Amino acid sequence: MTAEPPDAPVPTAAGEAAAGEADVPREAAARLATRSSASALSIPDLAACLEAGLEPVGLVQGFCAMQWAFYGAGSPYLRSASPLSGLPRGAYSEQWACPHGFVSAEHRMWGQNYEQPWVEAAWAQGFGSAFQRMLEEAGDAGAHGVIGVVDTARHLADMNVVEFHVLGTAVVVRDAPPPPGERPWSTYLAGMRLTKLLEAGMMPVSVVAAMVSVRVWASCVTEYLSEGQAYGWGTAGTAEIEQVSRARAAARSLARQRIRDQLGADELHGARAGLDSRELGQGDEVVECTLRGTRVRRFKHVDPLPAPRPTVRLG
Amino acid sequence: MSTTPTAGDLPEDAGHRLEELGEGLFTSDLSVNEFLLVKEAGFHPLGFVMGSSIYHTGVQLRKFSTSQELTKLTEAMYHARELAMTRMEEEADQLGADGIVGVRLDVNYYEWGSDAAEFIAMGTAVKSEDGESYRNAKGKPFTSDLSGQDFWTLMQTGHVPRGLVMGTCVYHIAHRGLGQALGSMGQNVELPNFTQALYEARELAMTRMQDEATELEATGIVGVRLEEKTHQWGSHTIEFLAIGTAVERTGEAVTLPRPTTIISLDN
Is the pTM above the cut of 0.80? Predict the structure, then answer.
């Protein structure tokens, strides 16, 4: 494996520009300078890593605690009346009108879905800052790259604070010259999966991730269907809830688009999509789709892989 | 038992059990596959060993709006685990073991003990079949949380385990004051003080773990896990525990066969 990606422009993970330079704490620098290095690799991953010519030099990590507020505010249809009128408009927005033709204080006259770019920007800043800090630690440790990256985001201590944590194992490529001070490459892969990628003639360039947030204000039809009721004469209570389906499809589609925008001419490997929803009322919810994977680049023509051998494990 | 782990502070029943194990019978919590691979690595299981400590963790005052390490609690959590580990090592030592594999370190709370917790360390003592000593730089049996499979694989990569190492830090995360909350109301922004505090807490735990590895003259730590628990202290007081197996490169060439691409026929 080569020590650095061929031709250099290395991609940016979402929001990394938000992180300042050299803001890794003193404690991290002191730990990385000690004799014994730590790695979060499992033993099989360590063995595969050594076999591929990668030597672990340290466990590296980055954190970012973000205030997390104002979920669900900022409807584009209430924009003129909202103090959040300056918020950016997203790429997706749809509205549903009431089909029943009567007016009541308890009856929803409209429903809408819209993307929440301000939530996505906060996520990108939190993830990007933590990711950048991890890469700074790896650079300080003299690493060529970071493997086995794991990222998490969780609410902290019952507060409106979300902590982003990105962790991985910094490695140097055996018998390769020291890294030229450029940004280390990074990948979610480790062990067997990383070895297979290299065997296939591809090398990791960078971790890429994107989160898309869509707010659903339920229409009357969505509200009734989510309660298991029919929404009109002659209709059945069992039907597709179109507004919710379209919100989820839009979140997934936009996440794929955001990742494509980060790839340039490279490819994505090991994509993992997660979709979370938080109910905010009857039919109302926030849908969040997070897509992450490793941007990979071909560095040699594919050598035919040996024919796979079918196996059955005993335990 | 004394609060400082010393030789011979094991319960009388443990002595009887260990005497029986010395007569040829062995017990272990290894699965059949693990047993075969431990044997394949050139080790023989001697017996299931454990150590325990019931510890009163006490109270430490914390400032409402200050993030800080709670050193008394850190010391208590460290000391309690150390007592359990030392007693387990003592049992292994009585069996003449070279090391302990598959170590599990648990904390249990009981209704009868307010602020008290039981720290338990358990594993299978093993001895080298070629007569070579694998004890660590302190002359004690090595400890490791590796499974039998991982133990075999590690040995094939030219490394030997030196000890289960850990570092802990109990940290109080400040509550946000009204002024701070109002100052950033309605914004999604980074909170640098929180970031810095949590960074420091985890780095302290990891540095302490690495210091333990350095004392064992290890060259690396594998399988590091970062665990966070609030135990019974409330959500703003968190124990950050870094734990992994310290290893040393033996200098022997890597003997692991080149991995082969397979298609697994099970899930």
Answer: no
pLDDT surpassing 50 at residue A211: yes
Are A49 and A126 part of one and the same domain?
yes
Q: Print the domain residue range for A258.
A: 90-115+211-293
Residues A145, A206: Cα–Cα separation, whole Å: 9
Within 8 A of A61 by CB-CB distance, chain B residues are 202
- How many Å lie between the alpha carbon of A233 and the closest alpha carbon of chain B? 43
| pLDDT given for residue B180 in this prediction | 65
Nearest C-alpha neighbor of B215 from the set B146, B168, B162: B162
**Choosing among B160, B178, B199, which should be mutated to test the A contact, i.e. which has the most A CBs within 10 A?**
B199
Residue A59 to residue B150, Cβ atoms within 8 A: no
Domain boundary among A152, A172, A200: A200
If chain B, 267 residues long, is cut into consecutive pieces of 10 residues, what is the mean pLDDT of each piece?
54 69 76 89 91 79 76 86 91 92 86 76 93 89 92 89 92 75 69 83 90 90 88 79 91 67 66
pLDDT at A77: 45
Which CATH number do you get for residue A173? Answer: 3.30.110.70
Chain B residues inside the 8 Å CB shell of A35: 214, 219
Across the beta sheet with B237-249, what order do the strands follow?
Answer: A37-38, B220-229, B237-249, B159-172, B68-69
Sign of the CA dihedral with A66 first, then A67, A71, and A74 last:
negative
Residue in B103, B98, B200, B82 with CA at minimum distance from that of residue B141: B98
Q: List, as ranges, residues 25-54 from A with C-beta within 8 Å of B.
A: 25, 27-28, 30-31, 34-44, 46-48, 50-51
CATH number of B25-249: 3.30.110.70
A24 in a domain, yes or no?
yes
To the nearest whole angstrom, how far is the Cα of A276 from the nearest Cα of chain B?
20
Q: How close is the nearest chain B Cα to the Cα of A46, in Å?
A: 8
Please give the structure tokens belonging to residue A53: 């010519």
